[in-house]
Amino acid sequence: MVRVARPGGRIVMGNWIPDDPTMPAQILRLAAEYGPPPPPGLVSPSLWGTGQAVVERFGQAGIPAGAIATRPAVFDFHLDRPPSSLTDIFVSSFGPIMRVFEALGPGPRADALRARMDALLEQENLAQDGTTHIRARYLMVTVTVTDAP
Description:
Elements (H helix, E strand, L loop, with lengths): L9 E7 L6 H12 L16 H10 L7 E12 L3 H11 L1 H10 L3 H17 L7 E13 L5
Antiparallel strand pairs: 1-3, 2-3
Helix pairs in contact: 1-4, 1-5, 3-4, 3-5
């Protein structure tokens, strides 16, 4: 990202926070529980959700810590459908979950994972009218590119 940003440009990211009690981190923990182990040497992409890792990674690209700002923020998932519809969206559109279900294939483990996701989303749902409203924390990252990479 730094390589393709011009000096004075900004890189802005929103990253799910690992080990957060809100829904995205819990969904990713379920994916890790049911999915195949990561390849050897893979550095977890979820580390982009920690301020320390963000500063370290951008520091390796020549960005000084003072040019990096992180803060927790909140995203609200809203659907005019029940929480199980959000499970369907994750299964069909969210890469980490898609890969787990592809690896599992049809069967009892996939059914168990879907049931656990449905239960989690129902538990996290703030709406009481059959729709979905789930609050989730993420790490907002803003990086000012200081010099030509």
